[in-house]
Structures are given as structure tokens and as C-alpha cells.
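Shape matters. As here.
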Amino acid sequence: MADISTRYQSAFPKIGIRPAIDGRRKGIRESLEEQTMEMARSVARLFAENLRYPNGEPVECVIADTCIGGVAEAAACGEKFSREGVGVSITVTPCWCYGTETIDMDPSIPKAVWGFNGTERPGAVYLAAVLSGYAQKGLPAFGIYGNEVQDSGDTTIPNDVRDKLLGFARAGLVVALMKGKTYLSMGSVSMGIAGSIVNDAFFQDYLGMRTDYIDMSEFVRRMDQGIYDPAEYERALSWVKENCSEGADNNPPALQSTREQKDKDWETVVKMTLIARDLMIGNPRLDELGYGEEALGRNAIASGFQGQRAWTDHFPNGDFLEAMLNSSFDWNGIRAPYIVATENDSLNGAVMLFGNLLTNTAQIFADVRTFWSPDSVERVTGHRLSGHAENGILHLINSGPATLDGTGQQEQDGKPVMKSFWDISEEEAQKCLDATSWRPASLEYFRGGGYSSDYLTRGGMPMTMSRINLVKGIGPVLQIAEGYSVDLPEHVHDTLDKRTDPTWPTTWFAPTLTGSGAFRTVYDVMDNWGANHGSISYGHIGADLITLASMLRIPVNMHNVPAERIFRPRAWSLFGTDNPESADYRACTNFGPLYN
């Protein structure tokens, strides 16, 4: 049976910690050895206690064997980091050190420096000097400097330093986790959607990933030749019949499929789900069945399914496939979600991957379908929006790829949340299933039939919507909108929902407004959104997305993250401080893609 143990072909990347020190002997270095090494150990403890890999295990740290006082020890540290699989680097010091002699020279590893704010030794002076060196050498690094002065014997990590260390490490691990992995394009371009024109250069140069491709006829071959685990298929089909409630058929009676055809569609969509997963990560059972090549998979950390229309005009749609794989549970129990982009929108798949790796939670894929102003809602329903929704709402809805975690049936302290899979209970997984109805597909859209998931996201969840767009002459740009899911009175939801296709999952989303730019009004958010799709993550993760984007050299063209939460490499300020958004573009253009 395929599970998370087969998802990664190599070990998870580790965080390397470099304790830098003043190399002068006969008193100076000796007096600083223990304090410097303790800084490194305290950072390692912080990460181990607060960060987890996608399988739920604590993040591992590697500390240099000795403090680094010059080029020889820097080289020895670099060799150890390479041997140990370090993907993120943090230098810590309480004192002056020799900047370019102790610098981390690996150009493809995200790097930061924590310079202890103490008066006994000039750690802040080293921090400024080494960051200047990093900028001069074209190796952007993040600078971390506490707001308050600490005593030399203080081994605690202040909250502001803690937040920056964790924010940097979360984003840095995403960079390292993506490197060397695959985006699997299952099919090609869907309905002329530009995002499903998979751009090899983007994935290679910015994310360090390769792209791989299969024609959707591979699904037909595997279904016809039985290239899937038959025992798992029988178990999955039985589980689906027990847990996936079939909803009302909205098709005109004359067009509705027969019961026999609907049952065959269930069999087909279950097989499609198994096959898509096996294509992504492989399945040892296939080797036992005589399919050694197919058993290997494609080392895909994310994928996309073309579906419309080359597939869906003849076969059942991919809605069940996408919704179940994007969820944190299936017939094999609770497990980490996969990342599968509907309509093979690889650019939305990329930000789904960002959100998933930052939070270890499932991601909602949705159309950014409609802006409903307060006046429009009142005109149509007689109801006046209030609370988070008082300035208007966005209707996020697509034909069924949204993760079932997005129902909001998981809870913490009585409030709806979307959890990491290791925190989800069996009861919560069942509630998500019970809150979802599987509606026979609209045959006007999907001539081949199939099933679409239908649910309503519970209100009150903090959420972040994001999207990458490619712009000729610039490259990728990222947009971010933090906000909240909102509840509407039942009759209001029904009235608005039935104006589009009511067989699809709905999230009512109210972005947080700033009063200026693209966030002056909710209408402006809709008007400035760069594509028809968005990825929605639980929590306000905009700051982490901005940090991650700067590491990858992807500028952010719109966001509503407060300035005090934004953390980019120190060199970004050298491109201007009055307009950080413009400086971001200039810095990303100057330094270029991380892997190019």
C-alpha cells in the first residue's frame, strides 16, 4: 500500500547551525566558546520543539563541530553540512567575527544570521558587517537582531528573535523540501487556461524542481490492464459506499445517467484516484504484481490533472480524485494530504504546495468566482452583511477539487480549524465526510459523468488566499490576501449559491482590508486578482509566504500583511525603503532566480 513512506526518495533536509566566533586566541575566543555554542544549541532546541517535517516528525538540526573563527573551520562546517543533508543555514554569534572568513558561501541554501544584542561583545557589529558581505557577494541573507539588549549570560531567545528564527526556518525548509522533487502534469492544457501550460523554466529555476508528463491515456491503460492494487481497490470502493453520500442529481431528468451507469462511475473514479496517487509517488504493491516500472512513481510532490475537456467529454471527471487526494484522510485512514491541482493549473499547484509545506495542512483549490457587494447581497436576499463580511465577500467555488478538510469540521477550542494530519481525530475525519455530499456531475460541463463534492465551509476560520502568475518580461509574481471564512444565513447562502452551480463546494471569504491599493475594498481585491484560481490555506500565513517568495526571488505584487510582520533578506532595504513592494521587484530582478 502506498503511503507517506514512499513519497520522498531522499531524507528530509536538515537545518544547519553555524556558531561563529572571534578567532583571536589567548583569551578572546576562549571566553566566548561556551556562550556561542549555547546559542547554537538553543536555536536547535527551538526548531526541534516547534517545527515538523511533512510526516510529523520533529525537524533535525546539525551544529558545526566547532565554533567557526575563520575559513578553515567554515570549510569544515560546509563539508559536514553537505554530508548531513543540510538545506537551510543559520549563523549565530554573540560577538565580533571576521565577516567574509566565516561566511556561508553556498549560493542555493537559504541563510540567516542572528547577531546577539549584547553590550559585552559587538555581535551587532558583526551582523552588519557580514550582511554587507553577503550583499556584496550576491548572497542575500536574513538578519536577525533582538529589539532589547540582553546580558551576556542570558541564554533565552527573546520573542521577537524567536518569531524571526521560526519564520525564516519554516520558509527555508519549504525551499529545501521542494528541491529535486517533481511536478507531475497528468495531461496537458485544460480549456486554454494559461496556468496549465506547465512552465519548465519556472519550476526548474525558481523552485529547483523538475517537471514530468503523462498523457491521460495512461489512466485508460492502467484501468484496462488492472495496473493498480486490486485488494486496495475493493477496500476503497467499499469504504466509499459507506462514507461518501451521493447527493441529489441536478441534471434534467431526460439527461440523468442510469443507476447502473452511476455505479460504474463510482468504480471508475475510485480507480482513477488510486492511479493518480501511484503515478505521483509509486506503490510497492505494483512491483509485487509484476509492474516494476509503474511501482516507482514520479517522485512528485505536486501534480495536476487536466480533466476538461480531453478526458471529461468521455470519462467521469476528476473531482473525486482531486478532492480525496487533497484531503487528509481516505480508506487507508488519516494521512498527509497530497497536492493535486484541478485543470492542471500548475501555478495554483505551486502555491498549494507552498501553503502545504509551510503549515503541514491541506489546501483548498477554488475559483475566485464572484464578488458580492453588501448592496448586491441585500438586493438579492434582503439580508445586510455584517461582521467580517460587512464590506462584501468573495464566492470561492470550483467543481469539486477542494479538500474535504475545508469543510471546517475539525475543531480546536470549539472553533473550526484545518489541522495537520497527526492532530486530526477519526471523529473529525468522519465529520468532514458527513458534511460532504457527492453530487452527480453536471452533464452540461462533464459529458462523461462523475461526481462533484458539495459542501459549505464553516465561517470564522482565518485564511490566506494566494496565487502565482507568470508575466512576460518579469517572470513569476505572487499575490496574497489574508482574511476569514464567513457564515451566511442559510437562506442567503442558498439564494447566492443557486445562482451558480450548487453541486460544488463553497467557501465565503472576506479579505482583510487596509484602506489602500488593492485592499482598499473587497471589490479591489477581486479586480486585482491575477487569475481565475486561488489557493486557500488555513491561518494567516502571508508573512511566511512573503519570506519564502524572497528566498525564491519571486516578487509580491499585492498583499495585506502588516509591515511589522514582513521579513525579507537585509539586502532588500538597499533597493529602497520608501516603497518595499517596488524594492522587492528590483531585488528579485537583480539577484535572479535562486537556481539560475
Observations:
- The longest helix spans residues 28-50.
- The chain has 19 helices and 23 strands.
- The chain has two domains: 4-178, 182-591.
